[in-house]
Amino acid sequence: MKKIIARLCIASIAITLTTSLYAKDKVYKLKMATTWGPTLSPLIDAANNMADMAKTMSNGRLIIDVHTSNKHKAPLGILDMVKGGQYDMGHSASYYWKGKDINTLPFTSMPFGLTSPEQYAWFYYGGGLELMNKVYDKHNVLSFPGGSTGVQMGGWFRKEINSLEDLKGLKMRIPGFAGEIMAKLGVQVTNIAPGELYTALDRNSIDALEWVGPSMDIKMGFHKIAPYYYTGWHEPASEMHFIINKRKFKKLPKDLQDIMIKAIRLSAYDMYIQNYDMNATAWQDMKKEYPNIKVKTLPKEVMDAMKKANKELRDEMSAKSPLLKEVLDSQDNYMLKVREWTKMSDYLYLKDNL
């Protein structure tokens, strides 16, 4: 009997070891949908880099197939496709889903809000990541920061803005929450497909437009038409996001979950610094080709009016959603702490050395 039991134990151990080895060798394949087209750097680069790092770090056990918008044809439908299981993952920006869930809005950027370094600190050390996943819990997805464009420029204008009166009746492409602020100041806000923006500006169908920054604006050619380039206020830290179907994530072995999260965090930061370099390089090219571009900041009268409109709209939204108020209050409270250091370090250094 002892020999039989011994043989059974040996067999059991062998089966366990074999199963364990096969589990380690098992390849897990996921599909990721992105909002971006195949050439829209650096946004699409963040998704591709994340997939490449996950494959390398897992020794080929985690394969993520990235689908660009021209493949799935639903660039703004990423959240629905991931929560519904059509895709396992997505890469997009949370403010695109404001119409579906207003609570997702602040995780990309808020006017006059946190800068990118401040926002990353809030996400990872100030409770932002926990609040974000509290918001996304009802959608059955996990969400992580996915790369920032930094401060986005305020836009290209055909004429100079010297007062609030200059905004009255101005036709401008500026979507989302920033568009609502501008509308309160008398701007005729419109949203036009990206492929039609240059033509609309060239033919005077619009007087101004907001896009991103030099790195992506240069490809669109707006600087060839509109000579006034206004500095940013509406998106000081435009963060993209990786979202993951919870059920699919839980099916991954723990080591692959860890690898995925680390690949996400590294690719997000890499996109931020990549875009910083691209902006600097593109701006040098713009200045050289079109030296008459005038970089302007909106007058104090206009900025004050926008801040007032921003507060009114935030208060209206917060009154309707306690969860949104919780998120905005968290960002505001963190800014009170972090902005003092930003001023002491970056601002005063730059002020004294420019």
From TrEMBL:
Protein name (database record): TRAP transporter, substrate binding protein, DctP family
Gene Ontology CC entries for this record: tripartite ATP-independent periplasmic transporter complex
SUPFAM superfamilies attached to this UniProt entry: Periplasmic binding protein-like II
Protein's organism: Malaciobacter pacificus
A single BP term in Gene Ontology: transmembrane transport
